[in-house]
C-alpha cells in the first residue's frame, strides 16, 4: 500500500525489526499493544479463544474477545492481571488528562458481543438487553465495536454517557462516563446524524442495512472513515482495527493467494482508502505537525498453498491463478474436491490414534500453534502428561502443499517454558498442559470422537477457506512492523537496527504524549526514534548505554528474543525425551526463568525510571546488567 508506506517512510519511522508476543494471534497482539505488557499480565496470552480447566477436570473454551471489565467463565476477570484484578484500562491516562478516547473494532475496549458485554455494562434487564433479545442483528450494529471513553466535562459526550465503571483501577476512577455503540456515538460526532460514512461516502452499516458497526472484519474505508469522523468530531485519541486484505471481503468467504486478482483489487482499495484518509485529515488541519500517528500489524502470516500460475506471476504484471474445483468452491458453501490453496486441517487426536494408538482424552485451542489441555489437568510429571507429550513429538502428517509427509511438531513448550514465554496467567485454570508449535502449513483441531485414517493422507484436508496462518513461532509470522509519525518522532525512514515488539508501543506513545500509566510496562520507550527535544531529560547523555541496556533487556525478556527462542528449543527436547531428560530440562528452565526475572526487573526499573520518573542512571550498573543478560543467553549455547 504505497500511500501508507510513503506516509511512514517520508515523514517518520518504519520499524521493520518489530515482533509479536506468543502466541502470535490477533487478540493477544492487540491487547499487548494496548497495554504494553505480555499476556501473563493482561490475561489473554492464548488467543483468539482460550481453554480452561473446570473444577471437575473437564475443559471449556471461551472467547478472548470480551469487554474489558467482563468476567471469564470461571468467575475470574477476563483481563486478569498479577493482582488478581482487572488490568488497568488503556484509556485512563488520556481521559484523566481531559481527552476523550474513541475505539473502532479494537479488542476489548468496546463491546465484543451483545450478551455478557451488554449485561455487564447496561444490566440484564435493560432496554439494551431487551433489544439484543428481540433483534440481535440490530443490537450488534447499535452496540458492538464502537465506543467513546469520555473525559470529565467532555464536550463530545455531554450528559449522554453511561458510567464508565473501573473499580479495579490502581487509582480512583469515579465520575467518568462512556458512549457505547454507534447508536450512542454517531450522533455525538456527526452533529446529530445516526450514521457515519466510510471514505467512499457509503453509510457504515451491517449486511442487513442497519447503520452502525459492520462486524469485526471492517474494510480500510470503513475503519478510516470512522476514525476521521472521530477526529473531526472532537475525539482526539482513537484506536482502530482494519481487517486483513487477503481474505475475500467481496463475497465474505474464502481467501486469496498471493498475486490473485481479488487480492490485488482489495489491496488497491485499501491503498486508495489511506490516500483519502490522509488527504481528508490534512483538509481538516489534522497533520503530522499536531497529531501522533501510530500504526502496527498484529502479526505476519505464512501463506499455506502452492505457487500460483503461470510460473513467475506477481499480481502486478501477471495475475496469479489457483486451483479451485469445482469452480467457486470456498470451504464454506461448496467444498473443493481439488485445490492447491489453503491451510491443511488435521485432527491431533486422529493422528495420535492412527500412528500411536494413543487415546488420551484431550482438547486443543484450535490453531496453527494449538495449546493442549489433557482432561483431568494432570501434573507435568504425571504419566498421562508425559506420554502424550512424547507421542505428540513423534507425529507426522501429510502436507499437500509440499506433497510429502512432514514432521508435524516444530517446537513444544511445557508449563515451565510457557511461564518463561509469558504465557501463564494469574488464573491457574487457564494454564494449558502444553503449547504445540506445529509446521506452519497446518491448522490443528482435536475432535471428540477421533477415527483412524487410512491412508495417513486422509487425515489431512486442504481447503481454500483460510490460506494464511499465524499463531506460530516462526520468524515469518512473529516478525512484523510498526510505524510512527508525528510530533517528537525523528524522520529516519525504514529502520531494522533496533529489536522492538508490541509491548514497546504503549510506553513510547505515552512518553511522546507526556503521560504515564499506573503500572510498570514490559515494553520500553523507543527513544532512539525521538527527535532531540522529545528525548526524556534523564536519558539525554546516556542514550548509548540505555540503548544497549534495552537491547539486552529485549533479548532475554521478549518471548521471541534470543533467550525465548533458545529455551523453546531446550523445552522441546525435554518434552520429547525420557522422564530424566524432562526433569533436568524443566528444572533448568525454572532456574533460568528466575534468573531472567531478577535481571529484567532491575532493567525495566532503570528504563522506566529514566523515561518517566527522572531517575538518575548508574552506567556501571547498566554494564553489569548487560553482562548478566549476555551470560544468561550464552549459558544456552
Task: Describe the structure in your own words.
- The chain has 637 residues and is α+β, with helices and mostly antiparallel strands.
- It is 34% helix and 15% strand.
- It contains 19 helices and 25 strands.
- Strands 1, 9, 23, 24 and 25 form a 5-stranded mixed beta sheet that branches.
- Strand 16 and strand 17 (404-407) form a beta hairpin.
- The longest helix is centred in the last third of the chain and has 34 residues, at 579-612.
- The chain starts with a helix and ends with a helix.
Would you tell me the overall average pLDDT?
97
Please state the CA-atom Rg, rounded to the nearest Å. 24 Å
pLDDT < 50 stretches: none
Count of β-strands: 25
Summarize the structure.
With 637 residues, this protein is an alpha+beta fold.
Strand and helix map with partners:
Elements: H1 2-11, E1 13-19, H2 26-35, H3 39-42, E2 49-53, E3 59-63, H4 92-96, E4 101-104, H5 116-121, H6 127-134, H7 136-143, E5 146-149, E6 162-163, E7 177-180, H8 182-190, H9 220-232, E8 237-240, H10 261-283, E9 293-296, E10 302-303, E11 324-325, E12 338-339, E13 344-347, H11 348-356, E14 362-365, E15 371-374, H12 383-394, E16 396-399, E17 404-407, E18 409-413, H13 415-420, E19 434-438, E20 442-445, E21 461-462, E22 468-469, H14 475-478, E23 479-485, E24 493-495, E25 500-501, H15 505-513, H16 543-557, H17 562-576, H18 579-612, H19 619-634
Parallel strand pairs: 1-24, 1-25, 4-8, 13-20
Antiparallel strand pairs: 1-23, 2-3, 4-5, 5-7, 6-7, 9-23, 10-22, 11-12, 13-21, 14-15, 15-19, 16-17, 18-19
Helix pairs in contact: 6-7, 9-10, 16-18, 16-19, 17-18, 18-19
Amino acid at each position: 500500500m504505497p500511500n501508507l508506506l510513503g506516509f511512514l517512510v517520508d515523514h517518520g519511522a518504519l520499524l521493520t525489526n518489530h515482533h509479536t508476543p506468543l502466541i502470535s494471534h490477533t487478540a493477544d497482539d492487540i491487547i499487548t499493544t494496548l497495554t504494553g505488557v505480555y499476556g501473563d499480565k493482561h490475561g489473554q496470552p492464548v488467543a483468539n479463544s482460550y481453554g480452561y480447566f473446570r473444577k471437575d477436570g473437564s475443559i471449556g473454551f471461551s472467547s478472548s474477545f470480551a469487554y474489558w471489565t467482563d468476567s471469564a467463565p470461571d468467575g475470574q476477570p477476563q483481563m486478569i492481571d498479577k493482582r488478581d484484578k482487572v488490568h488497568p484500562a488503556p484509556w485512563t491516562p488520556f481521559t484523566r488528562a481531559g481527552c476523550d478516547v474513541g475505539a473502532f473494532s479494537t479488542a476489548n475496549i468496546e463491546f465484543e458481543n451483545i450478551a455478557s458485554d451488554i449485561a455487564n455494562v447496561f444490566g440484564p434487564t435493560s432496554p439494551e438487553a431487551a433489544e439484543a433479545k428481540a433483534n440481535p442483528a440490530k443490537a450488534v450494529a447499535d452496540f458492538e465495536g464502537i465506543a467513546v471513553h469520555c473525559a470529565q466535562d467532555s464536550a463530545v459526550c455531554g450528559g449522554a454517557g453511561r458510567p464508565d465503571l473501573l473499580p479495579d483501577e490502581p487509582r480512583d476512577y469515579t465520575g467518568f462516563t462512556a458512549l457505547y455503540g454507534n447508536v450512542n456515538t454517531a450522533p455525538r460526532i456527526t452533529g446529530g446524524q445516526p450514521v457515519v460514512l466510510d471514505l467512499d461516502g457509503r453509510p457504515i452499516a451491517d449486511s442487513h442495512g442497519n447503520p452502525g458497526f459492520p462486524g469485526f472484519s471492517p474494510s480500510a474505508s470503513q475503519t478510516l472513515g470512522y476514525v476521521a469522523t472521530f477526529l473531526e468530531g472532537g475525539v482526539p485519541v482513537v484506536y482502530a482495527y482494519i481487517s486483513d486484505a487477503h481474505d475475500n471481503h467481496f463475497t465474505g468467504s474464502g481467501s486469496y493467494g498471493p498475486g490473485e486478482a481479488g487480492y490485488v483489487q482489495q489491496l488497491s482499495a485499501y491503498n486508495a482508502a489511506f490516500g483519502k484518509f490522509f488527504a481528508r485529515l490534512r483538509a481538516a488541519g489534522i497533520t503530522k505537525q499536531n497529531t501522533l500517528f501510530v500504526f502496527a500489524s498484529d502479526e505476519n502470516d505464512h501463506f499455506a498453498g502452492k505457487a500460483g500460475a503461470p510460473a513467475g506471476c506477481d499480481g502486478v504484471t501477471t495475475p496469479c491463478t489457483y486451483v479451485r474445483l469445482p469452480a467457486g468452491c470456498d470451504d464454506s458453501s461448496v467444498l473443493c474436491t481439488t485445490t492447491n490453496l489453503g491451510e491443511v486441517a488435521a485432527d491431533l487426536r486422529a493422528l495420535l490414534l492412527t500412528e500411536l494408538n494413543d487415546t488420551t482424552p484431550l482438547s486443543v485451542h484450535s490453531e496453527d500453534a494449538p495449546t493442549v489441555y489433557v482432561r483431568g489437568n494432570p501434573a507435568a510429571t504425571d504419566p498421562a502428561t508425559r506420554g502424550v507429550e512424547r507421542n505428540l513429538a513423534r507425529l507426522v502428517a501429510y502436507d499437500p502443499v509440499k506433497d510429502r509427509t512432514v514432521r508435524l511438531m516444530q517446537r513444544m513448550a511445557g508449563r515451565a517454558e510457557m511461564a518463561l514465554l509469558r504465557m501463564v496467567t494469574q488464573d491457574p485454570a487457564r494454564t494449558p498442559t502444553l503449547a504445540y508449535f506445529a509446521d506452519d502449513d497446518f491448522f490443528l483441531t482435536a475432535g471428540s470422537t477421533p477415527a483412524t485414517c487410512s491412508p495417513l493422507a486422509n487425515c489431512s484436508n486442504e481447503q481454500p477457506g483460510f490460506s494464511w496462518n499465524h499463531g506460530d513461532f516462526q520468524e515469518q509470522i512473529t516478525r512484523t512492523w510498526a510505524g510512527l509519525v508525528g510530533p517528537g518522532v525523528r524522520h529516519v525512514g525504514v529502520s531494522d537496527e533496533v529489536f522492538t515488539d508490541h509491548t514497546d508501543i504503549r510506553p513510547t506513545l505515552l512518553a511522546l504524549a507526556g503521560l504515564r500509566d499506573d503500572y510498570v510496562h514490559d515494553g520500553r520507550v523507543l527513544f532512539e526514534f525521538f527527535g532531540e527535544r522529545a528525548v526524556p531529560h534523564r536519558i539525554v547523555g546516556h542514550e548509548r548505554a540505555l540503548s544497549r541496556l534495552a537491547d539486552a533487556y529485549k533479548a532475554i525478556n521478549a518471548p521471541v528474543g534470543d533467550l525465548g527462542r533458545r529455551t523453546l528449543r531446550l523445552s522441546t527436547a525435554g518434552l520429547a525425551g525420557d522422564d530424566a531428560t524432562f526433569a533436568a530440562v524443566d528444572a533448568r528452565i525454572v532456574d533460568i526463568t528466575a534468573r531472567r526475572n531478577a535481571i529484567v526487573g532491575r532493567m525495566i526499573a532503570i528504563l522506566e525510571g529514566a523515561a518517566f520518573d527522572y531517575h538518575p542512571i548508574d552506567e556501571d550498573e547498566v554494564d553489569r546488567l548487560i553482562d548478566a543478560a549476555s551470560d544468561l543467553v550464552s549459558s544456552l549455547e
